[in-house]
């Protein structure tokens, strides 16, 4: 299948400017990520706050330059591309931001907001094109002249999605697209994203800290911890039988949908280490219930788990791939 996005050993360190003693304090927000998103799939990127999801999303869409590594979009190496030469890239990959309130200019009408990506491509959109965009996200022509404050949170996110769709991208990177919304509205926006995927053949990277949200829509899951991907695989398999101890701990806090089913609860002790000075070896080892000496000396890389090439985990002691979940009698 066509690879729409490919990241190879991507790193993003903040604070590398200035005197050498300052550089020693660099924040390793993304620290060696390899990831592929194929046409037609929805990849859920999950992890706790501060794990580097937003930074990775911004590097992948080339809103940020990587410190190191390679970014391929639509089979083309775009790592070093800058300025106007990024235009054709923007037609392939667009971003939807977390907070529609902050990402929409309050002084611009919806019509102006939706026109901006066209103009960045040197195109003057027709009114019919703008109306079509609004209709795609469940809004209507009469909304074109209105301003962001006249809309609800859910409607504003629809405008953010319409803006991202304007240049007909193949891949949308959605950074926590529903976390700023009321729970009742979250499902509507997620349904809209699913409908758009079916109608337009879109692919998504869906960034979320809420595993229940990702479960609804993702085909594949990648789990981030301290700037690295610690596990990836088909969503159903990862949810059913997490291989990495961190994924297992994260999921143990998520209610199981089937009535009567229970999951073993794992409470992680200790704080997330600082990305300025991550632990030696495995970044998760300081909080891991399975850590052994080897985990402190060598960093594990993503490898097939127990021979299953669909499932990869960066762990020397992955969990078995069969579910350990127990069902109590209903
Ligand atoms: N511009 C920046 N300068 C310095 N450090 C930054 C910058 N942006 C992010 N960071 C740091 O990089 C790390 C990863 O942040 P990032 O926002 O990517 O994580 P996240 O998983 O998206 O978390 P959240 O869900 O809270 O946004 C954090 O330690 C954060 O403080």
TrEMBL record:
Domain ABC transporter: 5-251
Pfam families: ABC_tran, oligo_HPY
Annotated GO biological process: peptide transport; transmembrane transport
GO molecular function terms listed in the Swiss-Prot or TrEMBL record: ATP binding; ATP hydrolysis activity
Similarity-based family: Belongs to the ABC transporter superfamily.
Key word Nucleotide-binding present: yes
Record keyword Transport present: yes
NCBIfam families, A to Z: oligo_HPY
Name of the molecule in the record: Oligopeptide/dipeptide ABC transporter ATP-binding protein
UniProt KW keywords: ATP-binding, Nucleotide-binding, Transport
Signal peptide feature range: none
Top-level taxon in the UniProt lineage: Bacteria
């Amino acid at each position: 299948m066509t690879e729409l996005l490919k990241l190879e050993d991507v790193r993003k360190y903040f604070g590398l400017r200035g005197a050498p003693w300052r550089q020693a304090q660099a924040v390793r927000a993304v620290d060696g990520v390899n990831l592929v998103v194929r046409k037609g799939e929805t990849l859920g990127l999950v992890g706790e706050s501060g794990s580097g999801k937003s930074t990775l999303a911004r590097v992948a869409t080339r809103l940020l330059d990587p410190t190191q590594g390679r970014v391929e979009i639509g089979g083309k190496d775009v790592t070093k591309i800058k300025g106007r030469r990024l235009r054709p890239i923007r037609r392939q990959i667009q971003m939807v931001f977390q907070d529609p309130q902050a990402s929409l200019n309050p002084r611009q009408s919806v019509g102006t907001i939706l026109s901006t990506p066209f103009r960045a491509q040197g195109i003057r959109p027709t009114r019919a094109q703008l109306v079509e965009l609004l209709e795609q996200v469940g809004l209507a022509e009469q909304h074109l002249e209105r301003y962001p404050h006249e809309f609800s949170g859910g409607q504003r996110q629809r405008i953010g999605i319409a803006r991202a769709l304007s240049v007909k991208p193949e891949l949308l990177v959605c950074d926590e697209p529903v976390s700023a919304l009321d729970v009742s509205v979250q499902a509507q926006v997620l349904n809209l994203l699913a409908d758009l995927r079916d109608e337009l053949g879109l692919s998504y990277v869906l960034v979320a800290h809420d595993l229940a949200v990702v479960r609804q829509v993702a085909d594949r899951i990648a789990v981030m911890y301290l700037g690295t991907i610690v596990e990836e695989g088909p969503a159903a398999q990862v949810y059913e039988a997490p291989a990495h101890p961190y994924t297992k701990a994260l999921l143990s806090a998520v209610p199981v949908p089937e009535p009567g089913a229970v999951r073993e609860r794992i409470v992680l002790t200790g704080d997330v280490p600082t990305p300025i000075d991550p632990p030696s070896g495995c970044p998760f080892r300081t909080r891991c219930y399975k850590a052994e000496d080897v985990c402190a000396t060598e960093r594990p890389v993503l490898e097939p788990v127990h021979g299953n090439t669909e499932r990869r985990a960066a762990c020397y002691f992955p969990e078995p791939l069969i579910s350990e979940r127990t069902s109590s009698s209903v």
